[in-house]
């Protein structure tokens, strides 16, 4: 999809030079989206988010082996690292209201890349305690969250007024790029940890956020009127105060609308169910003896599976009503998630399936299903955002979603502690897995909070055309 500026430029140039007009056409498409410079920038930022997964295994092994933390402590640090994602509206508000050096998008992308490079550089050199690690991981998370808000606002600007199908194509481009980045990083993540150690991986990771800073030049953005190059909008100026009040009023008016508040409540509860990921990581490494290299291969499979999930949604599910997608994927996810009990109890070996192959197959299926069920959340959030508040409102909705994930992670950490699952004891891990998966069914009675909409309906405006269930 071409930007408005690009369309105007093509219209004016067509009167002067047909050959120039042809040169402005975008012949390449991905997931049904034209690869304009703006869209390439968005895709590259999401690619960086995916490729930053290079450090994920290194962080897990660093917390477990170097800092000797228990699963519950690791889960708490993981939850703590999501805090920057809970205040995404602040970044959206700043991006919408406070230009840096005359730009609302480019400058914040550059800043986010520099923050990410700093955080991983510190992890590679000075950090040697769980508190220092938590702070650096937090800073790295802040970097990704900031860039995520900026590119999300660009996506929302394009998705507003489009059908669910086109909105789904835009989100597919974003998350497809992230999945490709995940594939690239997963191929090397485990082997690099095993061959060179976690510090080396942190050092390599420090270079990746600089890609975000570099692609900022591709963003087609005009300097904010009234601001000279290098001049910023002061937080104390009357213009900023009035802009702040206006944006806050718009945000409040938007959030309190039932067609936004009720779906958001469901998504929060859907993400707030407990998780047992940290406990499973300790089990697979300490009990089953999975090496970093093998876990890297598992991550490679899950990254490919994530891309397959995006393709599944884009090819078959983007025209399916949201309620049906959530119902089917939640039930399937709960049922298939309990198959981890087979790995924990060793039943797979009785059927001649090795732990390694079972782990790969299980991760593949669950990741495809999880990604396919997550895409509608992004599409719904993007289509609900009104004009002029794209970054702030979308960031608010995503913060609420991340708040649910944080709550689910902390509940999972508490349950891990209650069930007595530690780095050496896994007697009750099967019960923990069953409880976490069954709890994911609890939000299903609230499916009526989601809009009952025509997938191809245009969502332009305040969303009044989306019929909500009255009860």
| Spatial arrangement of strands, main beta sheet | 1-2
Low-confidence stretches: 1-26, 227-233, 454-471
Indicate the mean pLDDT.
Answer: 78
> Based on helices, strands and strand pairing, what is the structural class?
mainly alpha
Count of discrete alpha- or pi-helical segments spanning 4 or more residues: 22
Major sheet characteristics: 2 strands, antiparallel
How does this structure look, described?
It comes from Rhododendron griersonianum. Residues 10-21 have a biased composition (Polar residues). It is found in: Membrane. Residues 1-21 are annotated as: Disordered. The protein is an all-alpha fold and 471 residues long. It has helices at residues 4-14, 18-23, 37-51, 56-66, 71-80, 83-86, 88-97, 106-125, 130-159, 164-196, 198-205, 209-215, 238-255, 258-271, 277-287, 292-317, 322-337, 340-345, 347-350, 355-383, 390-418, 429-439; strands at 29-30, 33-34. It has a two-stranded antiparallel ribbon with strand order 1-2. 49% of the residues are buried.
